[in-house]
Design brief:
It contains 30 helices and 20 strands. With 847 residues, it is α/β, with parallel strands linked by helices. The strands form six sheets. Strands 14-13-12-15-18-17-19 form a seven-stranded mixed sheet. α22 links the parallel β12 and β13. α9 packs antiparallel against α10.
Length: 847
C-alpha cells in the first residue's frame, strides 16, 4: 500500500483492522475498538499514566510490543497521519489518535499522534500535554521533531535525556535531514550541546539515510554556533577609531537565501562609505577590499567630504545570531530589515549582544512573539525606532515604544550603484512576476546557494543585481519588495504587483508617488548622516542617542498624529432585533451546516440542564431545515435569513453562507440585550449535567467570559488584527485604517479569546461598544470572534478550559465539563473523538 496515496484508508481502518494487527503483534487478546459504533469514554481522560501502566511493567524496558517487529507499521501510521495533516484532513488525523488511545497497548502511540496533530493546530503547551505522556525512546523516535521541539521548550532535561538514548540506540537513522535539523536546533536553543553534536554527527557521518547535502551543510553550520564554534569566537578588537557592524544573515535557525537581504546591507553600506576621509580595516580582507571599492564609486551628489579622518573596523554581525556573537564594544549597527527568524518556533535571539549599539531604521517586526518584556525595554532604550512600514509603527506605539515611519533602506542603494544612462537600458526584468510575456524569463530572487557563499561574495552578487537594474533595465515587473524599491532607486520604471496588497510589510510602501519615494530616501539619508557624523568622530553613546532622538522627534510626533487620525469607516447598521423574549437567562445555540438532525436531542438535553425561565435562541440558516421541535417547556426563537433579513447589509453580499452564519450569530447574541445573562454554545456540544454554574459564572466586572483561544496561530491579539487586515486584499488603505484603529483598542500582546463558548453580560457588552460588532463584520469580513475581540480589546475574563474544551484542538483534561465540536470530527460521524458515547447518551434521553 502506498502511504502517500492511501493514508486515509489506514486511518479509517484504525477501529478494526489496524488495532487488530497491533494487538496481534502484542499477543494481547482484546475486543476491537469501534469507530462507527458507540465509543468508550474519552471525555474524562485518565490521570497521566506511567510507562509501566501504558505498556505493562514487563514491557517498559524494551518498549511497546508494536514498536519492535511491528515498528514498520507504527511508523507507517505516523507517516499517514502527517500526510493527512498536510492534506488538510486534520479531523481524520486527530481521530486516529483518539482511536489508538482507547486501548492501553496503543495508548502511547495515540498520545503521540494527538500531540503531532496539536503541533499543527494548537499552542506548544497544548501539544505537550499529549506528548509529555510519551517517554519511551522507541515511540519518541517516531515523533522526531514533533516530540523534541516542544519537549525542549517545556521539559528540557527530559528531552536531553531521551535524545541521548535515541542517539545511542541509533533510533534516528530513518529521520529525514529536515527532522534531524529541527531536533538539533531545538537542542541548541535549550543549550543541550551534546544533543546538537550527537544529531549532527549522525547526519554528517552518512549513517542517516535520508539527508540531503543542503541539510548536512545546515547542520554543520549549526555546530559552528556552539560555544566553542567559529561563529562564537571573539571578534578581535583591531586598532581603529570606530567599529561598524555590517549585517549578514547566518543563523542557528534558518539563514537567508533572499538576494534582497544583501541588497539591504549594500544600501546600508552606502551610508558609511559616502563619508570621505575613512580608512577601513577588518578580519576579512575580501570584505575590506569590497567596502574600499564601494567607497570609490559613491554617487557624487551623495558624498560627504567634511567628516574627520577615521579608521573604521568592519565587523560582520548576524541579524538572527547577533545575540550570540562576542563583538568588540561598542559596535555600531544600523538595524534594519525583517525581524526575526526564531531558532525553532518561538525562540528569538533578541535583544542583541551587550556590545551592540543599534540604530533602528527601516525596522520591520514580522514576528510579534519576539517582543518579550526585555525586547520592548531594549527598543525603548535605543529608540526611537524607524520602521519600514506603518504596521510596525502602530504595533510599537501600542507598546509605548517611540517609533516613526522611515520606509525602506533599499530606497538609498543608489548611493553605491548610481543609475546608468538611458541608452543601454532597453530591457524589462520580470522578478518573481508570473504572467509576463512567454519569451521573457522570470527571475527568482530566492537562491538556496547563497547560504554557502562568503559575505563579501553575497554583497558582490547584490551589487551586480542592482547594477543590472541601473544599466540594463528600463522597466521592472515584480512581486518582491526588495526588487521594487532598489530598482526604483536606480531609475527603473517599476510595476509592483504583490500577491497581497494588504500584506503587513507594505504599509507606506505601496502606491507611493515619486515625491513620497524621495521623502523616504532623503529622510533615511539625512538621519543617518547626522548620527554617523558623531559616531565617526568618536562621540560617546549618550551624545549619539541624544542626537538620534533629536533628528527623529518631528517624525515621531507626526507618526502619532497620523495613526491617531486614522479611523475605520464603518457602515451604519440597524440594531440587532430583540431575541429571547423577556427571559432573564438566554442560551444562544450556533447551529451549523448538517447539525439540524441533532437539534431535537440537544434542546431536550438543555431543558434538563438550565434554570426555569431560560429561553433558547438558535441562529443560522440551518434552522430552516428544522422540523417540528419537541415541546420541552423552553421558548425557542429562530434567527435566520427569513426572521432577520440581511439585505440591508451591502458589504455582506457575495461573501457566502459562512459569513452569513457569523452575522446571524452576532444578531442572536446582541439581540438578547434585555437578558441578565447570555450563554453562547455550539449545537455540536456535550453539555455538563447542570448549566446553572456556567450561566452564573463570575465575570469579574467584564462584559464576557470566554476561553483563551487554543490555536497556535492565535496566541496574540495583534496576530488576530494582522490576519484580519491582511485579508483586505486590494483595499490596502482600509487594511492600514484597521491596523491603526485596532492597535489603539486592543492589548496587542495579550491573548485573544474564542467565543465558541462565551458567557455574556448584555448590559456591559452594550456599554463596551457592541454596536460596532456587526459593522466590523460587514466592512472588513471579520468573524464574530474577530469583531468581538476587536471591540472589547482586553476587557474579558478567562473561562476555565473545563467549560469549553475542544477535542479537535486539545485533549480534554480530567474534569472537563463541556466539550465543543464546532470544529473537527463531530460525535455523530464515523470518526472517533472524545466524549462520543456520552454525547450519544445525551442525545438519546427523552423526557
Amino acid at each position: 500500500m502506498s502511504l502517500r496515496k492511501d493514508a486515509a484508508r489506514i486511518v479509517r481502518g484504525v477501529g478494526r483492522e489496524v488495532l487488530g494487527r497491533v494487538r496481534s503483534t502484542a499477543s494481547r487478546p482484546t475486543s476491537p475498538a469501534r469507530v462507527d459504533g458507540p465509543a468508550p469514554d474519552t471525555s474524562r481522560p485518565r490521570p497521566r499514566p506511567t510507562a509501566a501502566t501504558e505498556v505493562g511493567a514487563g514491557e517498559a524496558a524494551s518498549g511497546p510490543p508494536w514498536v519492535g517487529h511491528g515498528g514498520g507499521w507504527s511508523a507507517s501510521v505516523v507517516d499517514a497521519v502527517r500526510e493527512l495533516i498536510r492534506a488538510g484532513k486534520v479531523g481524520e488525523a486527530v481521530s486516529t489518535g483518539y482511536a489508538l488511545r482507547e486501548d492501553p497497548v496503543t495508548r502511547p502511540l495515540g498520545d503521540l499522534l494527538l500531540g503531532v496533530c496539536r503541533r499543527s493546530t494548537s499552542t506548544s503547551g497544548v501539544a505537550w500535554r499529549d506528548l509529555g505522556r510519551v517517554t519511551q525512546p522507541e515511540v519518541v523516535a517516531l515523533g522526531a521533531e514533533d516530540w523534541f521541539v516542544p519537549a525542549y521548550q517545556h521539559e528540557p532535561e527530559l528531552a536531553a535525556r531521551v535524545l541521548r538514548e535515541v542517539v545511542e540506540r541509533e533510533l534516528l537513522l530513518g529521520w529525514t535531514g529536515t527532522q534531524l535539523l529541527l531536533v538539533a536546533r531545538a537542542a541548541f536553543q535549550a543549550e543541550d550541546w551534546d544533543g546538537v553534536l550527537g544529531v549532527s554527527d549522525v547526519a554528517t557521518s552518512g549513517r542517516a539515510r535520508r539527508v540531503a547535502a543542503s541539510r548536512r551543510h545546515e547542520l554543520a553550520e549549526l555546530v559552528r554556533w556552539l560555544p566553542d564554534g567559529d561563529h562564537r569566537r571573539p571578534v578581535p578588537e583591531l586598532d581603529a577609531d570606530v567599529r561598524f557592524g555590517l549585517m549578514n544573515y547566518l543563523a542557528p535557525g534558518p539563514g537567508s537565501r533572499n538576494v534582497g537581504d544583501w541588497i539591504q546591507t549594500l544600501a546600508s553600506l552606502g551610508h558609511l562609505v559616502r563619508h570621505g576621509n575613512l580608512t577601513y580595516v577588518g578580519t576579512d580582507p575580501g570584505l575590506v577590499d569590497l567596502v574600499t571599492e564601494l567607497a570609490t564609486g559613491v554617487r557624487e551628489e551623495r558624498r560627504v567630504w567634511d567628516t574627520p579622518a577615521a579608521t573604521v573596523q568592519l565587523v560582520e554581525v548576524q541579524r538572527d545570531g547577533m545575540a550570540l556573537q562576542q563583538l568588540p564594544a561598542p559596535t555600531w549597527v544600523p538595524t534594519f530589515g525583517w525581524y526575526l527568524h526564531p531558532v525553532t518556533e518561538h525562540d528569538y535571539l533578541f535583544p542583541f549582544s551587550d556590545a551592540v549599539r543599534p540604530i533602528f531604521i527601516s525596522f520591520h517586526v514580522n514576528k510579534p512573539d519576539m517582543l518579550t518584556p526585555e525586547a520592548v525595554a531594549y527598543l525603548r532604550r535605543y529608540g526611537p525606532v524607524g520602521c519600514r512600514d506603518w504596521q510596525t509603527v502602530a504595533l510599537l506605539r501600542a507598546l509605548d515604544v517611540p517609533a516613526f515611519f522611515s520606509g525602506c533602506m533599499t530606497t538609498t542603494v543608489d548611493a553605491v550603484v548610481p543609475p546608468g544612462g538611458p541608452a543601454g537600458r532597453t530591457e524589462t526584468a520580470y522578478i518573481d512576476f508570473p504572467g509576463g510575456p512567454a519569451e521573457a524569463p522570470v527571475v527568482e530572487q530566492s537562491i538556496t546557494g547563497l547560504r554557502s557563499l562568503s559575505f563579501a561574495d553575497n554583497l558582490r552578487l547584490a551589487r551586480e543585481w542592482v547594477h543590472d537594474y541601473a544599466t540594463r533595465y528600463r522597466a521592472v515587473r515584480t512581486s518582491r519588495l526588495h526588487a521594487n524599491l532598489p530598482s526604483r532607486s536606480v531609475g527603473c520604471e517599476v510595476e509592483f504587483a504583490p500577491k497581497n496588497r494588504s500584506d503587513v510589510r507594505f504599509g507606506g510602501l505601496i502606491d507611493i508617488d515619486d515625491d513620497a519615494f524621495d521623502a523616504i530616501r532623503h529622510g533615511i539619508l539625512d538621519k543617518l548622516e547626522a548620527v554617523l557624523r558623531l559616531i565617526l568622530s568618536g562621540a560617546g553613546e549618550d551624545e549619539v542617542y541624544a542626537r538620534w532622538r533629536e533628528v527623529c522627534s518631528t517624525d515621531v510626533e507626526a507618526a502619532g498624529r497620523m495613526l491617531d487620525a486614522r479611523e475605520v469607516d464603518l457602515p451604519e447598521t440597524a440594531p440587532a432585533p430583540p431575541q429571547g423574549l423577556e427571559a432573564d437567562r438566554v442560551v444562544v445555540v450556533d447551529l451549523g451546516p448538517g447539525e439540524a438532525p441533532h437539534f431535537s436531542g440537544l434542546v431536550e438535553a438543555l431543558a434538563q440542564r438550565v434554570p426555569a425561565g431560560t429561553a433558547v435562541v438558535v441562529s443560522g440558516d440551518e434552522t430552516l431545515r428544522l422540523g417540528a421541535l419537541p415541546d420541552v417547556g423552553l421558548p425557542v426563537t429562530l434567527v435566520n435569513r427569513e426572521t432577520v433579513p440581511l439585505e440591508h447589509l451591502d458589504g455582506l453580499e457575495g461573501r457566502g453562507a459562512a459569513a452569513r452564519r457569523e452575522v446571524l450569530l452576532a444578531h442572536a447574541v446582541l439581540g438578547a440585550r434585555q437578558a441578565g445573562r447570555v450563554l453562547v454554545i455550539p449545537a455540536a456540544v456535550l453539555l455538563p449535567e447542570d448549566l446553572q454554574p456556567l450561566l452564573d459564572h463570575d465575570l469579574q466586572g467584564e462584559p464576557v467570559a470566554a476561553p483563551r483561544d487554543p490555536r497556535g496561530s492565535r496566541r496574540l491579539s495583534v496576530g488576530l488584527l494582522r490576519s484580519l487586515s491582511s485579508r483586505q486584499g486590494e483595499d490596502a488603505a482600509g487594511a492600514l485604517d484597521l491596523i491603526a484603529w485596532g492597535s489603539r483598542r486592543i492589548d496587542v500582546l495579550g491573548a485573544p479569546f474564542d467565543p465558541v463558548v462565551v458567557v455574556v453580560d448584555p448590559a456591559a457588552l452594550g456599554a463596551a461598544g457592541s454596536d460596532q460588532v456587526i459593522p466590523l463584520m460587514v466592512r472588513f469580513g471579520a468573524t464574530f470572534r474577530e469583531a468581538l475581540n476587536m471591540v472589547l480589546g482586553g476587557r474579558w475574563t478567562p473561562l476555565p478550559e473545563r467549560w469549553a474544551s475542544i477535542p479537535h484542538l486539545q485533549t480534554p483534561e480530567p474534569g472537563a465539563e463541556l466539550l465543543s465540536y464546532r470544529v473537527g470530527a463531530r460525535p455523530w460521524s464515523g470518526l472517533t473523538t472524545a466524549g462520543q458515547q456520552e454525547w450519544r447518551e445525551q442525545q438519546s434521553v427523552r423526557r
